[in-house]
Structure formats: C-alpha cells, structure tokens
Amino acid sequence: MKAFSGQAISWELREEIVEVELHREPCNEFGSESLSDFERLVAVLPELEQQARGVIIYSRLASGFSAGADLRETYYRTRQMDRREAVENIRQYLERTHQVMNAIDASPLTTIAAVHGVTFGGGLELALACDLIIADKSARFCFPELRLGLIPGFGGIPRLNRDLGNAAVRDLLLTGRSFNVAKAQQVGLVSQVVAEGQAVAVARATARQLRKFDPATTAAAKKFLKPIPYEELRREIEIFCQLFSQPAVEKGLRTFVESSDRQPYLPQG
User: Fold this and answer.
1) Mind listing the pLDDT tens digit for each residue in 226-259?
2) With 257 labelled, which of 165, 208, 242, 250 sits at a CA distance of 20 to 30 A?
3) Where does residue 110 rank: exposed (0-12), middle (13-18), buried (19+ CB within 10 A)?
4) Are 70 and 36 in contact (CB under 8 A)?
5) How far, in Å, CA of 210 to CA of 206, rounded?
6) Which residue in 144, 114, 136, 118 sits closest to 63, CA to CA?
7) How many other CB atoms are there within 10 angstroms of residue 188's CB atom?
8) Considering only CA atoms, which of 190, 72, 62 is closest in space to residue 124?
9) What are the start-end ranges of the H helices in 139-195?
10) Looking at the domain covering 3-198+214-258, what would its CATH class be?
11) Where are the chain's structural domains?
C-alpha cells in the first residue's frame, strides 16, 4: 500500500519518502480514530521499508502539530464503567498506543517530525518517537498531564530520559510549562529551527539527504544510537494506570469536559 486516507491521518509514498499527514480537527487530538489509522500505518511499515528511505510526519492544520490525547473521548468512554473496568480499558488503549510509538521508534527508516504550533502531551510523545524534530518558530512543547493528576502515557518520559536526560524531563513534567523553540533547541529537543511555515519543506530537503547513504548502514547506526527503553515504557503504563484509578483524575477530566475553554488544561503563555 503506497497511499492511504483515513479519518485522522493520511500517508503517501512519494520519491522514497513516506509522508504522513495529520488532519483531525481541531488540533489532531489522539483518539480511537487516530490510533486505528496509525495502526494501519505501522502494519504496512515493513512493506514500505522495502521501498522508502525515510518518513515525515506533519500536520496540515493551522492550530499545530497535535494537542495530545483526546481527553473528552477518554472521559465519555470510561465514565459509565466501574473503576476496575475503566483502568483495564485505559491499559489496553495505552498498550496499543505504545505498540504504534515503538514501531515508529524502531523503524530502520529515518523518521522526521515536522512540527509547528501546539506540540503538547501525546503530540510531543509522537514527535519524540521520531529520530529528528524540525520545528518552525511557532512551535511550543509541553507536558500538561500533571494538571489532570496524570503523567504522560504514550512513552514520553522514557524517551525524553533517553534523548535529553533528567533535567529537561523534570522541567517539562513537574512544572507543566511550555518550551518555545529557542529553549527546545537549547536542551537538544529539536534538531533544526526554521521560519514559520517552513518545517515541512525543510524536512523534505533533509529527507533527500538520506539517499546519499547506504540504508543498511543508516539502520545499524540508528539501532545503536537509539535503544528503545522497553522496561521503562512498561513501567510508565503501570504508573499511569495507578494514577488513572484515583478520584482526582475523574474530577480533572470532568472539569476539562465541562469547561467552555476548548483546551482548558493547557498552560497559558
């Protein structure tokens, strides 16, 4: 399969690059539709890897790359369940999401996230699963989950620890504040900062450079440079599920759903 158009994402193999476009309004919230579409992508990745040299993931929405998990869907899906059933439902959802993120992380292809605007929560976690993050000057990065009594659940903490170390992880996680691109580049989160609206173009130019190198050598280098912290990822799911069972989370989700602000959990400024 060289092309696919889904409810939340689309992709096309073009000039040896798989371009994955996010297009779920209002800001690519990661819900069941997104997960199903991404599962279709990773199912055909082994086939695409025989024809492609890289992957670019980007958003066509002006609002940004992704605002993270679809919390409204989570609330409505679990509110009628008893606590044990709700936690099991969340565990299954997280395990499926981790399979997607791990497949992107482990792909022998070089993966590039071209981001702009809001790159928060699960959106940041998707970008972290990629090898390179190219950000335009409008991009902001944040983990707001503690405001809801949770931690990131899509692999964000282990991948940040692997890539940046504890200082940046603690800053993003414990303060809940956002990083602009200058701060993100300073701590090593992004590899390139470009003018607004240019992230995808620069990502495409970067991807063209991949043709200069032997794909087996690139894959071996990536595997050596970027080990996947599977044990820490499993622990993240356990901690998330423990926290999700607490009354504070239900209260936080209810407040979010009932708020007139479209994204009330996001930090201001």
Assistant:
1) 999 999 999 999 999 999 999 889 888 888 888 7
2) 242
3) buried
4) no
5) 7
6) 118
7) 12
8) 190
9) 156-163, 166-175, 181-186
10) alpha beta
11) 3-198+214-258
In this structure, is the dihedral angle defined by the CA atoms of residues 67, 91, 176 and 164, taken in order, positive or negative? negative
Mean pLDDT, rounded, for 121-138:
97
Selection from 121, 90, 116, 109 nearest residue 240 by Cα:
90
Across the strands, what pairs with 115? Answer: 135
Helix 71-78 and helix 247-258: axis angle, to 10°?
120
Strand order in the sheet with 192-194: 3-5, 9-14, 17-22, 54-59, 110-115, 132-136, 192-194
Which tokens hold the place of 170? Answer: 């603690």
Query: Residue 177 corresponds to which amino acid?
Result: R
Residue with token string 């590039």: 112
Instruction: For residue 23, give Cα distances in angstroms to 30, 48, 207.
Output: 11, 21, 22
pLDDT (mean) for 185-198:
95
